[in-house]
Design a protein that fits this description.
Blueprint: H1 3-24, H2 34-37, E1 45-46, E2 54-55, H3 56-70, E3 76-80, H4 85-101, H5 106-113, E4 130-135, H6 157-166, E5 172-174, E6 191-194, H7 195-205, H8 210-216, H9 227-238
Antiparallel strand pairs: 1-2, 3-4, 4-6, 5-6
Helix pairs in contact: 1-3, 4-5
Amino acid sequence: MKRSYFLKLGLYGSAAATLLPMMAFKPLQKVYTLDQLIGKNNPDIEGDSYTSKMHKDTKVAFEAMRKAAASDGIAIEVVSAYRSFNRQKEIFETKYSDYISQGLTPIEAIRKIIEYSTIPGTSRHHWGTDLDLIDANAPRPENVLLAEHFHGEGPFCRLKEWMDIHSESFGFYEVYTDDPHREGFKYEPWHFSFAPIARPMLKEYRSLNVKDILKVENIKGAQHFTDEFIYDYRNKNILDINPELL
């Protein structure tokens, strides 16, 4: 391995070493409101667009990671960052209506949706910690968020290889891994979460009564969110993730 590569690793490590200690302990002392946890109002969110809005500490860490990747010829581009409750509700209900119109039963429609998309009020994107990433320097396929694009000869395989080596140094972890024993959402090699904020937020989120939240919010199909369904969804889709994020 070339000496320059070792020097780069050292620089990345130094950047992460100075960045993460400033963030690692502060969030643990904070109590998050219900609105923050379900994507309704969060004063810590910064940015002015769908791809730039994120938690202020996530933004600092992401910019450091983006600059490090750029030195290796990779232009990390965010295609989805913070997502509000209302935006997630629009996505969920549009898909629900589409699937129902195609002849699926309500339960079939819901189960089809939650292969990749979350029920509003349960998305990690509500926290401003989670980012969907591609490489802007690579050819852009029509549908960028397909696992096949991140492996083999896929356009984003260099990004995936770089993230596998470096992302955790900046506090970012792949959420829905390709572990064959993991259940819930399908594999998403583009989805990374900033652990110093996401871990304590998930810890507080786990104390919420998800069924009560969904019942109050009047979401299409909510009458089919039975106790059994919510139990299964909570344990598989919300909690069966990369253990480094628990």
